[in-house]
Structure formats: structure tokens, C-alpha cells
Design a protein that fits this description.
This protein has 20 helices and 14 strands. It is of the alpha/beta class and 612 residues long. The protein folds into three domains: 2-113, Immunoglobulin-like (Sandwich), CATH 2.60.40; 133-353, 3-Layer(aba) Sandwich (Collagenase (Catalytic Domain)), CATH 3.40.390; 358-597, no CATH class. The protein has a five-stranded antiparallel beta sheet, with no helix packed on it. It has a five-stranded mixed beta sheet with strand order 11-10-12-14-13, with helices on both faces. Bound molecules: zinc ion. Zinc ion is lined by residues 258, 262, 268, 278, 344. Zinc ion binds next to helix 5.
């Protein structure tokens, strides 16, 4: 391992030592087969020459945007890189270039220019020395391990030291071994999850922040998921299977690095070269040339989490500062898009809690947004009236006829977006979502919720609602009226309470439905989640109102719902899924989430790998 790292050329610690108190990071990865040289310029005017080996990752701590210069003289290209962004080196027409990985919901642009980087003000106050952030850990071996303590300890110490080189390289973190001990596992426990729970209950990590337990209880099964486990980012316990057998030391190192990566917030990726691929023990790391390391999005996440542990002593990902949380969420979304069916990505996003922007919105939408939403509702009512006046059928196939079902919904959504585009840009997206939700609502869902009812009535007084309901018709999505209702109301709730709040409200409604005899519907839950995703993207302007107005079509935003259980009676729901937090239920939710992420509207941009 050390040998590999020595051959990887990265910036010197000297260069790092002066960049401190850094609030953020810029992550670069070299997807070309060659070493890339570049000049790095910080906003304070400091410049340094850097190199990055093929496939390696570099994380650059910074407090403002940085400039990367590729090439020399007149051919030099400068890229201004925003804080908390990810870029890949690729090659186009034989010339190295930087390609930006857009993180969903995070706006950062990269532009190549020929002009030299701006030399900002001369260096101000010197920043404090950055150094390495040390996280105290304890290591505990299962008393049932047949190996002699001293042999075992030496081996694990060496492994941790190698893991530390990897973490230091990616995010300037080392796990500092402060305690070595034993723990006794219950031989009757046969499941890994239970074992992890037992370990967390029996062992207190103090004086360490994190307890890493090893158990020899389970035979190492190749390709099996649980080579190690933890309860998520910043959780206090990690358990690793350490049964003796035909497992190479690099593979064991990968398992340790993977779990410690989870501790620093890393989630799974489809990138086969990353230690965060979900299936370890695949013998990849046994190859001499294999680089044990992280992918770029996970590096960004770990850098930000470690920085906030260092500067703000956070104990849970939901405590991240708003800026860091936004970037981490974007990186989780980018990872989740690459790896369908993986529940870790969804639970990682959830662990962040409601987005910070929306905590502020809890006070209720501004009068400007309420007014804007009113304008949108009136536009939909106008559209409904126009539609009612159209003939049912005409001889000329191109002449407009009375719209119904899915076509009617598409028509309303586009007209609502046209109306919202007439509003000021800071009002339009929220007014569109809120207005559309009110305009499509023909249920009593909102009307028994006082806080919502208040907002709803400000946008549409009761007498106007009666008029609208007479004109609205039955707009459907995928031929289901309830899908339209769930999609649009959940989207509106994002403006009022944020994505988590909106989904929770939808879920609450689903559970209520199943109690009152309507039955739990995964299709409606799916519509809720699709509405939340749509709204999040519209609000963050990843999807423009112009696009919605011109091109909205249901298939781009709502996944097919074949095979989703519908109308599940309450007791059947309980029997099959337990409560809403159960593993079965979360797996089903993760499946829905990935169906939505795979929709044309959210498909990840072209993989930059292809460009090399
Ligand atoms: Zn994992």
C-alpha cells in the first residue's frame, strides 16, 4: 500500500499547511491514463504546481473558488472552480480538459477561459496551520477469536495504519488508536445486524469517538454484503468480520476503509474502482495495480463531514452547516443516481434531515409567493374554462379538442408554468409549485389540516374553489386521478415544509387512507415521492419553468407503477411491512426512489469517464 501511495504524486503537505480554516473543498479526479500537471491558484493569489496520477483523487481545501490552469503559454486554459464542486480530468482531441460533475441541487458552474486567473487581494492574515484531523478510535477483538492477541493486534494495527494513509490522502484525517481491548460476543446470535446491535450495546467507545469491533463468528462468504457494518455516518460503532481464512490482506483493508468511509459519511457508488462499491471481497484489491481509494463524490462528502467534525464538533450528519449539507446532499443524489436498488443512498440523504433552506420557509410562504400562487391558480382556471369550450371531437385531426385524463394534466401543468414565468424569477418556481398544488386539489386532504388550510385559503378563497371544481374535470397521470393529486400536492408541500416534510405528509396520508378503509397504496406513495423530486428540482432551478411550459410530459416525471401494491388493508400492510421505518418498507421505498431517479428528467449527465 505504502509503495502505491509513494508513487502517487499529490500536492505537498507544505502547500496544505497554509490553507486552513477552510470552509470547503474542491475535488478533482484524473480519469485520463496519464499523469496530469496543473497550476493551482487560490483566491488570495497563492499559486502552486500540482500533479495528479491517473485515476487518483485530489481534494483541495479552500475558502473561496480556486482556479486550475492546464497547459502553458497562449494555449493555457483556466478553469474557475466553485467551492464544494467535483471535476474530472479528461482528454478531448488529445488535450487534457476539466469536466464538471454537476451535483443535483447544487449550483456551481465551471468555465474555461483564456484569460489569466484573477489575482485577488494580497494574502491577508495568515491562516492557522491545518494539519491532520485525528479521530480517536478503540479496537476490540472478539474473545472467541482463536488467534493469539499479540499476533492479531500487530496485524490490525498495521491495517489501520494503511487505512490512515488512504484517509489522510483523501481528506486529511487519521484514525488515532487510543485503546485496544476485548469484547465477548453471544455465540447464540447468528445474524450480523444483531451482532452489530449487541456490540453497540455492550461496548462503550470512550475514550475513543468510535469503537471498531472484530468478530470471528461468521465465515467470510465471498460477495456477501455484510463483511462489516455500521449504523451510518458518525455512528459510534463499526463491526467487522475477522474470520481466518482465504481472504487476502488487501481485501480486509478494503473492508476496514469502506466502513470507516461510512463513518465519515461516504455512501455506496457504482464506481468499481472505489472502495465504496457495495460488494467488497471481489478480489479486485488483490491485484498489485489496484488503487484502494475513494471516488470523487465520496471524497467530497468525507472532506466536508471531517471539516465540520473538526471545526464544529458535529455528532450527526443532520447537524452539518447549511452550505456543507447542501453539497453533501448533492453528492448523495449523484451517487444514488448511479446505483439503483441500494438503500444506503436513500438513508444517507434522509440522515441529513430537512434541507436548511426550508427550515426558514417553515414560517410560511412570503406574501409575494402567495400572490404569485394565486396568479397561477387563476391561470389554471382560465385554462380549464377554455378547455370546457372545446368540442369533444372534430374532423380535422389537428384542431384542438376537449382534453381529458393525462392530456388534461399535461395541459394544466404547462399553463401553470407559463403563468409562473410571468412572475419575478425569485417567486416563479415556488409560486408555480404551490399554485399547481392548490389548482389540482379536489380532495379534503388539506382541509382538515389547519396550518395548510390557512395557506390554501389565502391562495384560493372558498367561493373560487367551488368555481374551479366545476371546471377542472378529471386530470390524471398514468390514467389515475389520485396520482395527479398526490404528485401536485406533495410538490406544493415542498414549498411549505421541504422534501422530507412533504413526503412525510404524503406517507401520513397513505397510512390514514389504509386506516379509513381506502387501503395503503405504494402507487400513491410513489406519486408523492415523484412530486417531491419534481418540486425539489424546480425550486433549485435544475428544471426551468421554461422547460416545463414547453415540454412537460408525464412519462418524464412519473415512473411506471406496474407491480406496485395498491389498496393494501391496514393489517396486511402491517404484516408485510411492519411499521413505516421497517427494513422491508425502507427497501420498497428505496426501490421507488430509484425508479424516480431513473426517469428521463433526472438521469445523470453523460459519464465523464467516456470522454477519456
Ligand atoms: Zn457499505
Amino acid at each position: 500500500m505504502n509503495r502505491i501511495f509513494k508513487t502517487i504524486v499529490c500536492w505537498t503537505f507544505l502547500a496544505l499547511a497554509v490553507r486552513v480554516g477552510s470552509a470547503g473543498v474542491v475535488v478533482l479526479q484524473n480519469w485520463t491514463p496519464i499523469k496530469i500537471d496543473y497550476v493551482l491558484s487560490h483566491a488570495d493569489g497563492q499559486q502552486s504546481r500540482q500533479s495528479i496520477a491517473s485515476s487518483d483523487v485530489a481534494s483541495i481545501p479552500a475558502t473561496e473558488s480556486i482556479v486550475v490552469t492546464l497547459g502553458e503559454g497562449p494555449a493555457a486554459r483556466n478553469y474557475q472552480l466553485n467551492l464544494n464542486s467535483i471535476h474530472y480530468f479528461g482528454i478531448r482531441n488529445g488535450i487534457p480538459e476539466l469536466v464538471h460533475l454537476k451535483l443535483p441541487g447544487v449550483d456551481s458552474k465551471v468555465e474555461a477561459t483564456a484569460r489569466p486567473p484573477v489575482q485577488a487581494s494580497p494574502p491577508g492574515q495568515p491562516r492557522p496551520a491545518e494539519g491532520i484531523y485525528k479521530i480517536p478510535v478503540a479496537i476490540l477483538i472478539d474473545s472467541a477469536d482463536p488467534r493469539v492477541q499479540t499476533i492479531w493486534e500487530k496485524r490490525v494495527r498495521k491495517r489501520l495504519a494503511e487505512a490512515n494513509d488512504i484517509f489522510e490522502h483523501h481528506c486529511r484525517v487519521r484514525f488515532d488508536l487510543v485503546k485496544v481491548g476485548n469484547w465477548t460476543s453471544d455465540p447464540a446470535i447468528r445474524s450480523f445486524d444483531q451482532s452489530l446491535m449487541e456490540f453497540a450495546q455492550k461496548v462503550r467507545p470512550t475514550p475513543a469517538r468510535l469503537a471498531i469491533g472484530f468478530t470471528s463468528h461468521y465465515e467470510w462468504i465471498r460477495g456477501e454484503m455484510h463483511l462489516g457494518g455500521t449504523h451510518g455516518a458518525l455512528a459510534s460503532h463499526i463491526l467487522i468480520r475477522e474470520s481466518p481464512g482465504q481472504v487476502s490482506e488487501p481485501e480486509r483493508l478494503e473492508v476496514l476503509v469502506h466502513e470507516l468511509g461510512h463513518f465519515l459519511g461516504a455512501a455506496h457508488t457504482s464506481d468499481k474502482s472505489s472502495v465504496m462499491r457495495p460488494m467488497l471481497g471481489d478480489r479486485k484489491s488483490a491485484a498489485k495495480t489496484f488503487r484502494i481509494g475513494f471516488d470523487a463524490p465520496d471524497t467530497l462528502i468525507m472532506c466536508l463531514v471531517a471539516e465540520e467534525m473538526r471545526s464544529r464538533h458535529i455528532w450527526h450528519p443532520s447537524a452539518l452547516s447549511p452550505v456543507a449539507k447542501n453539497a453533501v446532499r448533492g453528492a448523495y443524489m449523484a451517487l444514488a443516481q448511479t446505483i439503483p436498488q441500494d438503500p444506503v443512498s436513500t438513508s444517507s440523504i434522509e440522515s441529513l434531515g430537512p434541507p436548511p433552506v426550508l427550515a426558514a420557509a417553515a414560517a410560511g410562504p412570503s406574501p409575494e409567493i402567495i400572490n404569485g400562487a394565486r396568479h397561477v391558480v387563476l391561470a389554471v382556471v382560465r385554462a380549464a374554462r377554455e378547455n370546457q369550450q372545446l368540442p369533444v371531437r372534430l374532423k380535422d385531426p389537428r384542431a384542438p379538442v376537449w382534453r381529458t385524463n393525462d392530456e388534461l394534466t399535461t395541459y394544466y401543468v404547462r399553463r401553470a408554468a407559463v403563468a409562473a414565468r410571468q412572475l419575478p424569477p425569485h417567486v416563479g418556481p415556488s409560486a408555480f409549485l404551490l399554485g399547481l398544488g392548490v389548482a389540482m386539489d379536489d380532495s379534503n386532504f388539506v382541509h382538515d389540516k389547519l396550518a395548510l388550510q390557512d395557506v390554501w385559503q389565502k391562495i384560493e378563497p372558498n367561493d373560487q374553489r367551488q368555481t374551479r371544481l366545476l371546471l377542472l374535470g378529471t386530470p390524471t397521470m398514468l390514467k389515475r386521478h389520485s396520482v395527479t393529486r398526490h404528485f401536485t400536492i406533495s410538490a406544493a408541500l415542498v414549498v411549505l415544509s421541504g422534501p422530507q416534510g412533504a413526503e412525510a405528509a404524503g406517507l401520513g396520508k397513505e397510512i390514514l387512507d389504509s386506516r379509513s378503509g381506502e387501503g395503503f397504496s405504494f402507487a400513491d406513495l410513489c406519486a408523492d415521492m415523484a412530486g417531491v423530486m419534481f418540486a425539489t428540482h424546480v425550486r433549485d432551478e435544475n428544471i426551468s419553468l421554461q422547460d416545463v411550459a414547453a415540454r412537460f410530459q408525464i412519462e418524464d416525471y412519473v415512473p411506471k407503477m406496474e407491480g406496485l401494491a395498491d389498496d393494501l388493508p391496514w393489517d396486511t400492510f402491517l404484516k408485510q411491512y411492519g411499521e413505516a421505518g421497517s427494513e422491508n418498507f425502507q427497501r420498497q421505498r428505496a426501490d421507488l426512489f430509484h425508479r424516480i431517479l431513473a426517469l428521463p428528467a433526472y438521469r445523470a449527465p453523460e459519464n465523464p469517464k467516456k470522454k477519456t
